[in-house]
Give the backbone structure.
Amino acid sequence: MISDDPQPKPGILFLVAVPIGNFDDLTVRAIRILREADLIASEDPEKTRQMLSHHGIDATLTSYGPTNIEEKADILLDRLQQGAQIALVSDCGSPVIADPGALLVTLAHTHGIQVVSIPGPSALTAAVAMAGLPCDRFVFLGQLPETRAGMRRCLSTHSIGTINTVAFCTGTSLALALDIVADVTPQRTIVLVCDLTKPNERIMRGTVFQIRRGLKKLPTPEDMTLILTGKRKRMVRTGRKKSATPAQSLSSRRISTR
């Protein structure tokens, strides 16, 4: 017997960026989507519930990580295929950036589920923007490993490159990273951005030794983004130094106003 019931219309997977520290950074559009969603899939439901409570949002939450990710992704995919509107959020910042949400997004695309991005806060872009460094190009390493061998493998290539390197780190991984930088390239400038958007937000700039001294004077940060500047290219001189053009001479000359 052939059923006359139509197939359910697929739902939508919304990728919703949430605050990285200050709950008031949630966008107006994100608030609406989180209120209207049938289900919110969170990396850390308890942390997400605190943020939702701040905005008076009552919602159904479920966890999608960090364990049994494949099983949970299949369950969420089934809900989407049945027509559910699901909001995917990280514990903070933009989902899928250094968190386990990528599998669900890939499955949604594979099965023809519409994926909609609701952009907003990101610790990565916020830290790069405020670092005071050229940011036209950079390499993002995600979350740094917490073993010495893993850290050395991670930094061995990027610490000698000419492009700025950005990574998220914990207290343990930061200490390992600073040890390796001190061994390999101690004069390289480091920027450490701590607890972005929180009352105790700090930014530290200097060599590895200056950063270490600065950290001793501060409470241990909860969230940190490390930026290691790229190695400066050595200028190659190919002949006699050219004389300055009129424009160059003017820019380097002190101009008297008397």
Notes: The two ends are 100 Å apart (CA to CA). The longest strand covers residues 138-143. Strands lie at 12-16, 39-42, 61-63, 85-89, 114-118, 138-143, 164-169, 190-194, 202-206, 224-228. DSSP finds nine helices and ten strands in the chain.
